[in-house]
Every structure is written in structure tokens, then in C-alpha cells.
Amino acid sequence: xxxxxxxxxxxxxxxxxxxxxxxxxxxxxxxxxxxxxxxxxxxxxxxxxxxxxxxxxxxxxxxxxxxxxxxxxxxxxxxxxxxxxxxxxxxxxxxxxxxxxxxxxxxxxxxxx
Length: 113
Hints:
The chain has six helices and no strands. The chain is mainly alpha-helical and 113 residues long. The chain has one domain.
């Protein structure tokens, strides 16, 4: 997951929307950030996909502001090492989104003087 997150954190601004991510038959896609990200995502374990999915399904501005994310996490009933691993993965995902948010703010400031 770390390779996926590092790539996503570094290249989020180069990704194309799904509607624009199109290649010609036989086109070399080695330099396509979307394709490279898809390949990294495909290499994630079931555990990593589960962590990413849980985060995407449960962590949003409302849930954070309402303070219910912790309650939802506790409701999973994870124990010991699994709980620690899951929490570590969620932290990495959250850090990635924070880094992207900061980069977007900087980009907006740089573009608007």
C-alpha cells in the first residue's frame, strides 16, 4: 500500500478523469499515471483494499466533524495486531489525503498570486 499511496500523493495532479483516460490500441502506456496507479492498486493485498475501502466509505468531512469516525472504528471490534495494522493503514491513507489537500491549496495560491 505504501507504494500506491506514495505514487498517489506525488502524482494526484497528473491523473486524468476516467472520461478522459483513453488510449489508442497498441499505445505505450508506461508513462500514463492513471495506468501506473491502476497497476499499483491491483498489486494491493485484500487487507490493503479493505482498509482503503473502509476509509473511502466512512471517512468524510461530516463524519470527521461529527466525531463519529472513532465510534465506527471501535464498532469493527478489531483486536491486538489486526487493530494496530488497520489503524496504521488508515493513518497512511489520511496522511496521503492531507498531503494532497496541502498541495492543492499551494497550487491554488501559486496560480492566484
